[in-house]
Amino acid sequence: MSWSLEEAIAYYKTLGTDQNTIMNLLKEVQQESGGSIPLFAIPRVAVNFGVKESFLLALIRRIPSLRLGDTHVLQICSGPNCSKHRAIGEAAQKLESQKISVSYVPCMRMCGKGPNIKFDGKLYHQASPQLLKKLLEDSSN
Ligand code: FES
C-alpha cells in the first residue's frame, strides 16, 4: 500500500494535536516525500491540527533536520482517455523549467471527467493549460 498524506494526518491526529505529534508527522512527510516537506502539505497539516501555517513554518525553521521543499508536484493522468488531450502534457513541458515536478501516472479511474491532473495532491478534472497557469499563479501569491 502506498503512503498518503491524508492517511498520515488521520493517523497522527489519533495521537494528539500537540507540537511533538505535529513534529513527528512532519518528519514522516519529509521522509516519504524524498527529503523535504512539500509546500502543499503545510496548509493541510495546519487545518487538520488547528494551527496557523506560520506556526508550522517557524517549527520547520527551528528544527534543523526538517527541510521545506520549494517544488510543486504535478501529476498528469496517462490513461487512455486523458492522454488524448495532449495540450496538458505540452503545457506541463513548458512549466517544468519553473519550480514544478511533472510526472505521468496511470489511469486515475475518473475517465469521464478527464483530462485529470493532481496539483500538489489535489485532483482537478477537465484540466487545461489555462488551469495549470492559474494554479501556478495562485500558488505563488
Ligand atoms: S484515462 Fe484518465 S482517469 Fe482514466
Helices, strands, pairings?
Elements: H1 5-15, H2 19-32, H3 41-49, H4 53-62, E1 72-77, H5 86-95, E2 100-105, E3 117-119, E4 122-124, H6 129-139
Parallel strand pairs: 1-2
Antiparallel strand pairs: 1-3, 3-4
This protein binds FE2/S2 (inorganic) cluster.
Residues 77, 79-82, 107-111, 114, 116 line the site of FE2/S2 (inorganic) cluster.
CATH superfamily of the largest domain: Glutaredoxin
Beta fraction of the residues?
5-15%
In N-to-C order, the SSE pattern is: HHHHEHEEEH
Helix content: 40-55%
Distance between the termini: 35 Å
Q: Which oligomeric state applies?
A: single chain
> Which fold does the CATH topology of the largest domain refer to?
Glutaredoxin
Largest sheet: 4 strands, mixed
Q: What's the number of domains? A: 2
Q: Could you give the count of β-strands?
A: 4
Rg over CA atoms, rounded to whole Å, is 16 Å
Task: Identify the CATH class of the largest domain.
Answer: Alpha Beta
Can you describe this structure?
By secondary structure, this protein is an alpha+beta fold. The protein has two domains: 58 residues, no CATH class; 68 residues, Glutaredoxin, CATH 3.40.30. The chain is 46% helix and 13% strand. It is built from six helices and four strands. The protein has a four-stranded mixed β-sheet with strand order 2-1-3-4, with helices on one face. Helix 1 packs antiparallel against helix 2 and helix 3 crosses helix 4. The chain is elongated and about 45 Å long. The termini are far apart. The model has no long low-confidence stretch (mean pLDDT 88). The structure holds FE2/S2 (inorganic) cluster. The site of FE2/S2 (inorganic) cluster has 12 residues, from loops.
